[in-house]
Amino acid sequence: MNARLPWLAGGVLLAMSFFLAVMLVKPIGVSTQFVIADAMVWNQIDDTIITKSDTNKKGYASSNAYLNKSGGKYAKNAAEPMNYSFIFVLAMMAGAGLSSLLSSSKSTPAQDAKEREMPQVWRDRFGSSKTLRYSAAFGAGFLVLFGARLAGGCTSGHMMSGIMQTSLSGYIFTIGVFATAIPVAMMMFNSKSNGAV
């Protein structure tokens, strides 16, 4: 028996989570926390990058303009990372790991587990090299994160939280994502290209 959540139920639960987050705390956004994690590491290497400040409204300042913006908001989050946003990202990773473990139980067929690890559409196009699959996934993830920071927000902040709040940047970001993702997917997984490259 496959215990996967139907897509509609999953979508409704996701929408409710975003609605509650916006109503009770603040909009969900994830990619900024990678900047905060980088700044935490940087601050360990060079403890002058983030300093206490009486002039910045957040109480912290940075010689790095990006960390110092919004009155030292990012500098403060890196200096004091145990806040809602950072804990949310840690909980999100823990939840994904737990979900993966629970869905990989003995009741899940081996073929289904193999499909999750390397989908048939990938094997048909690129072969079954795990090194290639994981390298491509890492590279794509890097590009998505780089693009998210360049756009000033990720799919969570712009697409889900943004559209829910009728943000113009959310609509523009979403149109850009789909206008790019659909043609790239069609080129990568063209049905005429069945052989491994």
Can you offer a commentary on this structure?
- This protein is mainly alpha-helical and 197 residues long.
- The protein contains nine helices and two strands.
- The protein has a two-stranded antiparallel sheet.
- A hairpin with a 7-residue loop joins strand 1 (50-52) and strand 2 (60-62).
- It is globular, with a radius of gyration of 20 Å.
Q: Concise description?
A:
The chain is mainly alpha-helical and 197 residues long.
What are the defining features of this structure?
197 residues; mainly alpha; 9 helices
Could you report the average pLDDT, rounded to the nearest whole number? 83
Major β-sheet strand ordering: 1-2
Strand content: under 5%
Order of helices and strands: HHEEHHHHHHH
Helix content: 55-70%
CA-CA gap between termini: 36 Å
Tally of contiguous helical segments: 9
The main β sheet shows up as:
2 strands, antiparallel
C-alpha-based Rg, rounded = 20 Å
Number of E strands? 2
Structural class: mainly alpha
Report the uncertain regions: 193-197
General shape: globular
